[in-house]
């Protein structure tokens, strides 16, 4: 074993012979031993189908096959590319081909996504079929052998969007994932009799790194939910006696929007760990369900992390660890401390906001075949996160946005450039700009400015007809202008568009929650959007801090 670091393969093999229940899914239970045996069978199949260090794509919901193939890949020294099912058409094919997947594991429900795609050299394995079971049958007696795996073996290729427009495949090795699992298991005191509830999609690092890995490291059980359901959440955690779960902020909002019940605290959950819940909703969640939420910031690539700790001020992510600094990207000098007024509004944002940079050691392992993106992250020997922060005099960090054109919608990073390329096909558009506006609860919403002619019904139909428009990409807001604002160098003035947001003199059209049609936005619509479905739990100062207070136009 290299450098005495563990591998995921060793953690998988350690469960061989453990006959305690270890995995639950839709009425089905597998023991830890059965999971290890299933992983060994799949690893043996992989060894016959492709050479070590090859890549497999996994296009699945959260079914038992997902952790089985993650475990199998670790034993076979293969890497799993988590394929995002919200991607469409050529963009979906690009993800599979870019990561050079020799095999794609999927299920019947996802087959329509692959219709018409050209995937040369990719073998499809369809789970839940007789052919699939027959393919695995000869390997039923395989045993997990971790002896060939090394900490430096690639295990995960998970996509993260950036300013280049195309998602980048961040690399995570067995050593990093195993170390992250052990670290989180120690931080949260995970025990073998715990049950981790995985309701976030496993093609994201959130579920694999922060939920599955610590359970594996501690020998805890895992309960899977095919896809997140706010209405099914409590029933699931009670059924499985789940003690831990991970989340993104949008999921917390959906849970708070469910009808309160007298038995909301009747469960075994003791902790939720995630990002972007927001101080107000985190407090409301703990009051209602009796479960504290531990917030953390972590770049998807592993280059920087910030952990919340007791005493962290409202709105802050946590205290800066050694090596983490907020720098002016032009001068590489540290930004002065942030100053807040009595209402919690940042008063020196122009000088205090900069890019979060890790000048200390970090586990960033690069991107798959994307040296330009790696060079952007590694500058002056430091790791640049691409995220904007400010830091107060006590060392606490506050998230302030993104340094490139990324948007984060429902916990998903999107690229404005990609969305612009799609919207540019709209017949009435002379020019298009896409950017983020704050969501009242957490993250962003997509806003587009279109110069030209705009028909709301025609635009809604146009969006439905675009095969590569992911489910999170459709603009919530559309501003219509006669001429696109530009800078002195004739570039679209995106900073000005972001700053004006919804409050502008031009017409703004929007799609309320659950609707596909656009309608002209009026003053009361701004109020509806700002207050949202959880207005009684919303702290007015939190709304003001996000700059979304309504006013008459």
Count of helix runs: 18
How confident is the prediction overall: mean pLDDT? 88
End-to-end separation in angstroms reads 66 Å
Model regions low in confidence, pLDDT < 50 over at least 5 residues: 533-553
How helical, in percent, are the residues? 25-40%
Trace the largest sheet across and list its strands: 2-1-10-9-11-12-13-14
- List how many beta strands DSSP finds: 27
Biggest sheet details: 8 strands, mixed
Q: Give the percentage of residues in beta strands.
A: 15-25%
In summary, what is this structure?
It contains 18 helices and 27 strands. The N and C termini lie far apart (66 Å). The model is unreliable at 533-553 (pLDDT under 50).
Description:
With 553 residues, the protein is α/β, with parallel strands linked by helices. The chain has 18 helices and 27 strands. α2 packs across α3, α7 packs across α8 (205-218) and α10 (249-256) crosses α11. The N and C termini lie far apart (66 Å).
Topology:
Blueprint: H1 8-13, E1 21-25, E2 28-31, H2 32-49, E3 55-59, H3 65-76, E4 79-82, H4 89-98, E5 101-106, H5 111-114, E6 123-126, H6 130-136, E7 154-160, E8 168-173, H7 174-187, E9 195-198, H8 205-218, E10 221-224, H9 233-240, E11 244-248, H10 249-256, E12 271-275, H11 279-289, E13 293-298, E14 305-307, E15 318-319, E16 324-327, H12 349-352, E17 354-358, H13 371-377, E18 378-379, E19 382-391, E20 396-402, E21 406-409, E22 412-415, H14 416-423, E23 429-438, E24 444-452, H15 456-464, E25 477-481, H16 494-500, E26 508-510, E27 519-520, H17 523-531, H18 540-545
Parallel strand pairs: 1-10, 3-4, 3-5, 4-7, 5-6, 9-10, 9-11, 11-12, 12-13, 24-25
Antiparallel strand pairs: 1-2, 7-8, 13-14, 15-20, 16-17, 17-19, 18-19, 19-20, 21-22, 23-24, 25-26, 26-27
């Amino acid at each position: 074993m290299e450098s005495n670091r563990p591998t995921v393969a060793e953690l998988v093999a350690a469960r061989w012979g453990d006959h305690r229940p270890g995995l639950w899914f839709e009425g089905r239970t597998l023991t830890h031993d059965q999971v290890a045996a299933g992983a060994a069978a799949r690893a043996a199949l992989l060894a016959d189908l492709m050479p070590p260090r090859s890549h497999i794509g996994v296009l699945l919901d959260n079914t038992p096959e997902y952790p089985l193939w993650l475990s199998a890949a670790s034993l076979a020294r293969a890497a799993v590319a988590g394929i995002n099912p919200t991607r469409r058409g050529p963009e979906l094919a690009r993800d599979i081909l870019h990561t050079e997947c020799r095999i794609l594991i999927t299920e019947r429900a996802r087959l329509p996504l692959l219709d018409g795609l050209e995937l040369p050299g990719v073998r499809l394995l369809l789970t839940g079929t007789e052919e699939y079971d027959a393919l695995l049958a000869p390997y039923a007696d395989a045993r997990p052998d971790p002896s060939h795996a090394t900490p430096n073996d690639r295990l995960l290729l998970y996509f993260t969007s950036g300013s280049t427009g195309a998602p980048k495949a961040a690399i995570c090795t067995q050593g990093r994932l195993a170390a992250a699992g052990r670290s989180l298991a120690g931080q949260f005191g995970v025990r073998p009799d715990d049950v981790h509830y995985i309701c976030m999609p496993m093609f994201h690092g959130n579920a694999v790194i922060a939920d599955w890995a610590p359970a594996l490291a501690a020998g805890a059980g895992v309960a899977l939910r095919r896809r997140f359901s706010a209405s099914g959440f409590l029933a699931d955690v009670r059924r499985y006696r789940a003690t831990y779960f991970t989340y993104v902020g949008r999921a917390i909002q959906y849970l708070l929007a469910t009808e309160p019940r007298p038995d909301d605290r009747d469960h075994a959950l003791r902790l939720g760990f995630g990002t972007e819940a927001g101080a107000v909703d985190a407090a409301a969640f703990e009051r209602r369900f009796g479960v504290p939420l531990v917030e953390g910031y972590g770049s998807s690539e592993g280059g920087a992390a910030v952990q919340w700790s007791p005493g962290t001020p409202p709105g802050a992510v946590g205290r800066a660890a050694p090596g983490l600094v907020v720098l002016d990207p032009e001068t590489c000098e540290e930004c002065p401390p942030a100053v807040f007024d009595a209402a919690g509004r940042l008063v020196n944002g122009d000088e205090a906001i900069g890019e979060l940079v890790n000048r200390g050691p970090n586990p960033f392992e690069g991107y798959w075949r994307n040296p330009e993106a790696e060079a952007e992250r590694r500058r002056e020997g430091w790791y640049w996160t691409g995220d904007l922060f400010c830091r107060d005099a006590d060392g606490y960090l506050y998230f302030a946005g993104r340094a490139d054109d990324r948007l984060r919608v429902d916990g998903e990073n999107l690229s404005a450039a990609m969305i612009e390329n799609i919207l540019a096909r709209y017949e009435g558009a002379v020019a298009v700009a896409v950017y983020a506006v704050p969501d009242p609860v957490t993250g962003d919403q997509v806003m587009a400015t279109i110069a030209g002619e705009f028909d709301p019904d025609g635009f809604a139909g146009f969006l439905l007809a675009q095969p590569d428009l992911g489910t999170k990409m459709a603009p919530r807001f559309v501003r219509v202008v006669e001429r696109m604002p530009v800078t002195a160098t004739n570039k679209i003035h995106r900073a000005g568009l972001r700053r004006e947001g919804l409050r502008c003199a031009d017409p703004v059209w929007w799609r309320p929650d659950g609707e596909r049609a656009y309608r002209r936005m009026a003053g009361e619509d701004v109020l509806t959007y700002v207050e949202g479905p959880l207005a009684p739990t919303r702290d007015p100062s939190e709304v003001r801090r996000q700059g979304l207070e309504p006013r008459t136009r």
